[in-house]
Structure formats: C-alpha cells, structure tokens
Input
Amino acid sequence: MNWSTTLQQPRSWLVAIGAGLIAIHLTLTWRSDNIDVLGASFLFWGAAAFLLRERAKHLNLQSDLFSSLVGLGILTIVLLKSISISEYDIFLRVSPFLSAFGLALLASGFKGLKQYWQELLILSLISISTGLLLGIYDITPVTAKFSALLLWYMGFPVQRDGVLVQLPTGSIEVYSGCSGYGTMIQILGIAILFLFMFPTTLKQKILLPLIAITLGFVVNGVRVALMGLLVAYSTREAFEYWHYGDGSLVFSILGVFIFGLICWFFILRTPPDKEDSQQC
Output
C-alpha cells in the first residue's frame, strides 16, 4: 500500500475523522456507566458504519466551501463539548447524530445529504431518551400491570397498586427507567436496519417495526416480573446482578435474538417476490 498516496485522498481523511469521532464517543459513553446508551451506541454506530461501507464506492464526495465550514463548525462544537464531559451527559445521546451530520456536510455538502439519510436516521435513534418518551406518554403503569399479570398467570399471589407490584414477601416499584422504552428503541433500530439491508414487502415494512416495539415491551415486562420474584424469594445480590449487573444485558440480547429468529423464519427463509418487494 502506498501510504503517501492514500493519505492524500479525501476519503481516507474522512474515514479517519469518523473513526476518531466514534472512538471518542464510545469512550465517553463507557466512562459514563450508562448501559442503555452504551449498548445503543455500539449497535447503531456499527450499523451506520456497515451501511456506509456497503455503499462507499457509490458516494458522491463533492462538497462546497459553505457546507465544509458548517460541517467543520459542528465537528468543532462536538469535540469541544466532549472535552468537558466527565460523567453522563445528555449530549452523549445527540453527539452521534451531530457528528454524522457534520461529517456528511464535510464530505458531500448540503446537496449530498440525501445519500446519508439511512445512517442519520439510525444514529438519531440514540438521541431518543426514555425521559423524552415518558414526557410524551408514560407507559410505566402499563408495564407494571403487564408484569403483575404475568406473575398472576404463573400462579403467584400478586397485587398491583399503580406502579407498585406486591408479593407476600416483597414488592418492587417500577420506575421510569424500567418502563421498557430503552429495549423497544433498541429492537426498533434492529428492525430499521433490517429493512435497509433486505428487500421486504409493504406489509412487512409496516409489521416489522410494530413487532419490534411489541417484543421490546414484552421482554422488558418479563424482566420486571423476574425482578419482583427475586425481591420476594431470592437474595439482594441476585436482584442487583439482574437489575444493575451483567444480568441486565441478558434481556436486551434475548430481545434481539428473538427478533432475529422472527426475521429469519418469516422473511429470510421465504424471500418476497421481486415485483412486490423493495429496499428502503
């Protein structure tokens, strides 16, 4: 490889800048100890990079002076703000979209932004916080009701009072962080990525996001029901492991795995006719 020639190509500099921005964001998110944002960041950064790599040879990399200056300005703001972050900050949610937007302007200008709409949409999902969605509609009581219903069907003497799920030997209060929005957004992102990568029918384009949101809610409801059982019939250490520790990641992985199986058995194994299908 001729490194001197490679370093003179704009594409190489754009890749280097993008890789640096990703590394900075993931490092800061890791230090913030926010598992939801970290998991979503790894997932959606990887998805955006994969989509770009698939279309790299077909991208039009022609920007103008104004677009380049705006893009550099946005990236400068992202870098300066990143320097001052020492713990979790809401900026960690919006910086991936801002970084991608600034980099897209630097690469292709405002006229070429439409080339990157898929990547920008994927990264914008990180910006959607649980607090924002709860401000629109609070599903926490619904989550508590669903979890209590699961326990009742399993034969446990459970009662519910608002967001409080009570068992004879213990109870849990379903806080906003356990509402399920985080898992729903994560699996929804997988669904959108799937629609970008594989040909699907109009019916599948409508059903897949709905299935993803429903599955995320159900998986989280099962997790909350398990928390109730652990509080009532197990040790505090077991509860903390499944609530705060590595065990909390199992349900996110489980949700993604189940959704992957749904896509495999109902879509990939029986691909739609070319006349009825198209990629997003």
